[in-house]
Design goal:
Number of strands: 9
Number of domains: 2
Radius of gyration: 25 Å
Distance between the termini: 66 Å
Structural class: alpha+beta
Order of helices and strands: HHHEEEEEHEEEEHH
Helix content: 40-55%
Number of helices: 6
Strand content: 15-25%
C-alpha cells in the first residue's frame, strides 16, 4: 500500500512538473502593463469589529489576527503623524517624499521605524526614529560604559543633544551619525553625508523636535 501511494504521488509530481514546463514554454509574451500593488494601513475600527465578532464566536485565531492588524493600523497612523511633524527642509536640504517610510514589526511598537531623507547636490541627511532593540543595544552599551574619545578611538564620542545623552560617530565612507536614545525603547538616528564638521551635523540635527516625537510615541 505504501509503495502504491508513493508511486501515485511520484506520478502526480511528474505530471505537474510536465504541465508547469509546458505552461512556461508556451508563454512567449512579456508583461508591459500593470500598476503594481497598492499599500494602505489596515482599517483600525474594522479590524476591532472583526476581532470582537471572532472572539464572540470563539474563533480565537482570527480574533488575534484582527487585533494585530488593528495594532498595525495604529502604528502606521503614529508613524505618519511623526513624518508630518518633521520639517520640510533642514539647513537648505529638501525632503525627498519618495523615500518617506513607515515600517512595523507588528508586535506592539517594538519594531516601528520611521525614516525621512533630505537631499541637495552631494549632501544627504537621513533621519530614522525607531523602537528597535537592535538599534538601541550598541548605543546603550557605549553610554553605560562611559565611553569617551580616546587616543585609540577618535571616531566616537559622547554628546548631549537637547538634554539627552547620545553618541556621535564619524566614518570616512558614511559620514557623521548621531544616535540618541530616548524614553524606554526609542532612538533617534541622524546620519549626515558630506557635512564638513560635527558642528554642522549637530546644527542640522537641532531641527528635529525629539520631545514632540517622544510624546507622539507615548514614551515617558
Amino acid at each position: 500500500m505504501v509503495e502504491k501511494i508513493f508511486k501515485e504521488d511520484e506520478k502526480k509530481d511528474q505530471d505537474n512538473a510536465s504541465q508547469g514546463n509546458n505552461t512556461s514554454s508556451e508563454s512567449s509574451m512579456s508583461n508591459t502593463r500593470g500598476s503594481g500593488l497598492t499599500t494602505s494601513a489596515p482599517d483600525v475600527k474594522e479590524n476591532i469589529k472583526q476581532a470582537e465578532t471572532a472572539f464572540a464566536g470563539k474563533n480565537y485565531g482570527q480574533a488575534r489576527y484582527a487585533v494585530r492588524q488593528a495594532m498595525l493600523g495604529v502604528e502606521m497612523e503614529i508613524g505618519q503623524n511623526i513624518l508630518d511633524g518633521l520639517p520640510e527642509k533642514v539647513e537648505g536640504l529638501a525632503k525627498d517624499p519618495a523615500q518617506d517610510k513607515v515600517t512595523s514589526g507588528n508586535i506592539g511598537f517594538v519594531g516601528l521605524t520611521i525614516e525621512r531623507v533630505y537631499q541637495s547636490n552631494d549632501q544627504e541627511l537621513r533621519v530614522t526614529i525607531g523602537n528597535d532593540a537592535a538599534l538601541l543595544t550598541g548605543v546603550n552599551m557605549y553610554l553605560s560604559a562611559g565611553g569617551t574619545t580616546s587616543s585609540t578611538d577618535q571616531n566616537h564620542k559622547q554628546i548631549t543633544f537637547k538634554s539627552y545623552r547620545g553618541v556621535l560617530e564619524y566614518d570616512e565612507s558614511s559620514g557623521y551619525t548621531l544616535s540618541v536614545p530616548f524614553g524606554q525603547t526609542s532612538i533617534l538616528i541622524v546620519n549626515g553625508i558630506n557635512f564638513s564638521s560635527e558642528q554642522e551635523i549637530m546644527k542640522a540635527a537641532e531641527n528635529i523636535d525629539i520631545d514632540k516625537i517622544k510624546n507622539e510615541l507615548g514614551e515617558q
